Amino acid sequence: DALEGMECAGELALDGKLRAVPGVLPFALATRRANKALIVPRACADEAALAGDLPVLPADSLWQVVAHLLGQEKIPPHQLSASVKSTAP
Question: Has residue 13 been placed in a domain?
């Protein structure tokens, strides 16, 4: 199963785009404890990456997620930017 070991958070718009949602960090922390990867809308990637040792896969659309799960086009893990790292608690 392609979704084994993955969690997803975000809002799916009617046009297939992924939209940001508030409160991704607690979800990311729970996902890290479960030792899974997390797919999120690109706009939520920095917040999710604050959870630490967690593969965060930022996506723009449902189609991009499907292509990733089918192995057609892998989503590279998000790298927390230096500016966000420096302001993190």
Answer: yes
> Cα separation of 29 and 16, whole Å?
26
Q: What is the pLDDT of residues 13-57, one digit of tens each?
A: 999 999 999 999 999 999 999 999 999 999 999 999 999 999 999
Under 8 Å between Cβ of 59 and 44: no
Evaluate whether residue 86 is within a structural domain.
Answer: no
- Please indicate, yes or no, if residue 49 is contained in any of the structural domains: yes
Question: By residue range, what is the domain housing residue 43?
Answer: 6-80
Distances (CA, A) of 32 to 14, 17, 62: 29, 25, 22
Is 57 in contact with 27 (CB distance < 8 Å)?
no
- What tokens appear for 66 in the block? 């499907």
- Range list of H helices, 1-89: 24-33, 45-49, 62-69, 82-87
